[in-house]
Amino acid sequence: MNKFLVCDTAETPRELPRGSAPFFGFARLLRRFGFAIAPEQAIAFMQAVSLLGPRSMDDVRRSAVATFAPAPERRVEFDALFESWFCGDTGMLSPGDQQDEEETEIKDDNATAEEQIITIQDAKGGELTSGAEQLNTRTFPSDDLRLDKLERRIGAALPWRRSFRTVRTSTGSNLDLRRSMRKILSADGDIPSPRLRRRQTVPRRLLMLIDVSGSMKLYTDDYLKLAHAAVQGTGGAEVFCFGTRLTRLTPALRIKNRDQALARAGALVEDWDGGTRIGRTLLAFLSVPRFSAFARGAVVVILSDALERGDSTEMETAFRRFAGAAHRLSLATPLAGDPRFRPETAALRAIMPMLDDLVDGSSIAGLSEFILSLGRSAPDIEPMSGRGS
Amino acid sequence: MAHEGEGIATSPEAVMSRLAQSHYLADEELATAIFLALRLGKPLLLEGAPGVGKTEAAKAVAEVLGRELVRLQCYEGIDAAHALYEWNYQRQLLAIRQAGEAETDIYGDRFLIARPLLQVLQAPDQRVLLVDEIDRSDHEFEALLLEFLSDFQISIPERGTLCAKTRPLVVLTSNRTRELAEALRRRCVYHWIGYPDAEREAAIIMARSGDVARETAKAVADAVRDIRARPLAKPPGIAEAIEWANAATILEKGGSPWPEAFRRAIGVLIKDEEDIHYIEPEMRHIIEAAMS
Known about the structure:
The structure holds 2 protein chains of 2 kinds. By secondary structure, chain A is an alpha/beta fold. Chain A has 3 domains: 3-99, no CATH class; 123-152 and 204-385, Rossmann fold; 163-201, no CATH class. Helices cover 38% and strands 13% of the residues of chain A. Chain A has 14 helices and 10 strands. Chain A has helices at residues 21-32, 39-52, 57-68, 75-86, 148-157, 177-186, 217-233, 250-253, 258-268, 278-287, 289-295, 313-325, 346-351, 364-372, and strands spanning 103-104, 160-169, 174-175, 196-203, 206-211, 237-242, 246-248, 299-303, 328-333, 357-360. A 7-stranded mixed sheet of chain A has the order 1-7-6-5-8-9-10, with helices on both faces. In chain A, helix 2 (39-52) packs antiparallel against helix 3 (57-68) and helix 5 crosses helix 7 (217-233). The termini of chain A are far apart. Chain B is α/β, with parallel strands linked by helices. Chains A and B meet through helix 2, helix 3, strand 2, helix 6 and helix 10 of A and helix 2, helix 5, helix 8 and strand 9 of B. Chain A: This is VWA domain-containing protein. Chain A: Pfam families: VWA_CoxE (PF05762).
C-alpha cells in the first residue's frame, strides 16, 4: 500500500516496519495539507513517541505537536487531521478546502431578528448596514486592471524610518571596527582612513484594513486588487479584511498571479458582503498582540465607509488606538466620491480628530495615487479632512 | 544514548514534579515538551502571549538542572558581534605594534571576546542558554542561529568551526510578533504556552507570591480570567496577576476592606490607560463575581 512506503518517488521504495507506518503516514498527510514537514521532524516524532511510551493517544498527540510545531492559527486544523488519521474521525476537510491562514472570529452575540441583511447595489446610508453575520464566499473574475505603477513604485513611495541595523557608508559617526581592522592589517599596521557605518533607513510597513461588508460590495474587488499590488510591491505590507469577522489576507496575496491570489483570498473570507461591526472587529485586531504589532509605526489605511451601526464608542476607541500606534492613519471612504459628501455621521465626527487623512476611496486610480504620495509630507491628492464641521 | 538532564528527564511527570519544587507549576503538555527537549537533545521553542511564563520556564529548568543560565535578549539589529563573538581590536593593534617586524597570531583566544552563544559553547560545564524574544530579532539573525541550533557549533572565519564541549540546553522564547522561519521551528521541540485555567493560576499565585491567602488567590485567578476575555490592548499576564494578589493583600493588611483593596491595586494588573478606562466601570462587578 502506498501509505506504508517511505518515499513515493524512490525507485526502490523500502517498506517501513509495520508499527511505524502510521506515524510517517501522518507526516505525509500533514504535507499534503500544506504543513512544511521536514524528514527529520518525522524521525523526531517517532523518537518522541518511543520516549513517551506511548501510554495513551495523548502521548502521540503531544509528540506530534512538539515535533511538527504547528502554528497556533493552524492548530485546529492540525488537531482535526490528527483525529482523522489516528482516531478515524472522518470529519476532516479535503485538502482543497482547508483554511490555513490566521482568522480571528468574533462571535455573533448581538445580532437580532430585526437585523435583516440587505444586499444592495446602491447602499448609501448607515441605516442600510447591518450588524448581523452572513457568511458568503466569492469568486473573482479575471481582470486586466493595471496596477503596475503602484506595484513598481510603492517600495520607494512609503515613508521611511531609521532601523537599528547599520550599513556601510562613507560618511557617518559609527566606526566599523571589523572592516577598519581588516584594512589596518592589509596596510601593515598603518592607520588608514576609518571605515564607517550608519543606521540604515527602511520603508515603514503599510497596513491595509479592508471593509468587506455588504455596504462596500461595489468596491471590495478593486480594493483586493489594490492590496495585491501593494503586497507584491513591498515586502512590508499587511492586509486584513473585516466585516463581522477579521481575516488576514497577506499570505494569500503573496501569490504572484493576481487571479490565483484573489481566488485564494476569496476562499479565505467567509463574511463577504455580510454585516458590519467595524468597531468590534478593529478592536479584535488590536487585542491580538501579533496583529497590533503590525500597526506600530506603520502607515495604516482603512478602506471603509465607516458607517457603524448604533453606538460608535468601540469604533472611536479602535481609531484612537490606531492613531496612537501608527505613524499615519488614513481612512479611504467611497462615500467621499460624492462632491456633496460631508463627514456628518456621529461615528465619522468622532474619529475625524484622530485621522491624518480622509480621502476619496471610490476610484482605484485615486487610491493608488494617494498611497504613492504617502511618503511625501503633503499628499498630492486632496484630503477630505478639511470638509469636517 | 547518553542524554542531558539524567536527574529529571526520566518522565514528563518527573519533570513536572521537579519544576513544582522550584515553584514553577508546569502542565503536562509543557512538562512533556521539556522532557522531549532534554531527551532528544533539541532546542526548546516556547511561544505564547506576553506574561504566560516562557522566560520563567527557562529559569526554572536551569534551576532544577543545577546549571547556569546564560541569557541572550534579542532586539532589532542584534548581530553576530552581540550574540556570538567579537575581536578585541585594540588588543590586536597593540600586539601588532609590539611584534614589530615579527609575525604574530592576532586571532588567538586572548583576542576573542566571547558573547553568550560562544560562552555557552566554551563552557566546561553544561549550561542553559535562553534566547529570549527571538521574534524581535531580524531574519538574518535567525538564520545565523541555525548552525548553532542544529549542530551546537559556530563557524568563525579566522578560526574554523568551534563545537560545544558539552551540549547546552537551549530555550528560545517568542511572543509571535512575527512568524519565525520554518527552518528554525523544525530544529526545535515546540510548545505553545497558553494562559492557565483558573485553578492552576490560583495555584501559581499561591506558589509564587509571598503571603497571599488561598481565597485571595482564587478570587484573583477568577477575576483575571474574566478580564482577559475582554478586548484589551494589553491583557494581564500571570506575573501581573501575582502582583495584583500581593498588592491587594498588602492594602488589605493596611486597613483597606476586601473589594476596595482589589480595586485600588488595579494599577499593577492593568498597565494601559485606555484599558483602565474600559475596565473600570465593570471592575466592581468582576471582583464581586470572583469573590463570590
